[in-house]
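[Q] Does anyone have a clean structure-token version of this?
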Amino acid sequence: MGHEVLIGMRATLLAAAWCAALPAFAADALNQAIDKTLEAQQSAAQSQQRIDGVASETRDLADEYRRLAQQVDTLRVYDDQLERLVAGQKAELDSYGSRVAAAQLTHDKLLPLMQTMARTLEEFVRLDLPFLGAERQARVAAMKALLDDPDVPPAEKYRRLMEAWQIEADYGHTLESYSEALQIGGQPRTVDVLRVGRVALLYLTFDRAEAGYWDRHDRAWKVLPPEYNHRIARGLQIASRAAPPEILTLPVVAPEARP
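[A] Here you go.
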């Protein structure tokens, strides 16, 4: 009987101890649940930050695409203008040739016409982008001297004049690189020059530390941000056939709107 009472008391004490320990286990479980919830919230916040970053980058890329698309449209308009100019010049030259062949103009009548064409060519070179200045001016000077030479037949004068005009027309469709001394910031500097048709005229110093472009509005060389140095260097490689052709993003001055 006394043994059974002792067993009962032990059971009661174990039950009381179990009831006392139960709130501690529940608190631990609750703390673990709270920790997991906080971790989940932090993970969600980090994921949202990554999503916001991707969205911002996507917007930046979209803005850059729109800017480049607008630049391409501007270049297309300018190129169309140049194409019409060249086509008009060629049509005018063809017209001159047809008139010479059909009417068999005498030397006295043909010479004033060729002199007018030579003066027009000289003015065109003066107003154009300043590339290969010495070479082009020397060609114009030689053409004017040829027209004044009485020993040269009119047909040869006309042929050489057409040849000079054709050379100028071809500049609008070629990519070229060469070295030249330029006046940059009032100082003479020898640099590498990149000509992209008649759309852009750019330069890069030999140490590749500075790049610039010809501003057709101000008719002066201006320095570009350093981000263009690599692109212009790549363009020089392509122009000199040291690298295969590829699409490059280069700075271009937008053409002036005609009234």
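[Q] Thanks! Anything notable?
[A] The longest strand covers residues 175-184.
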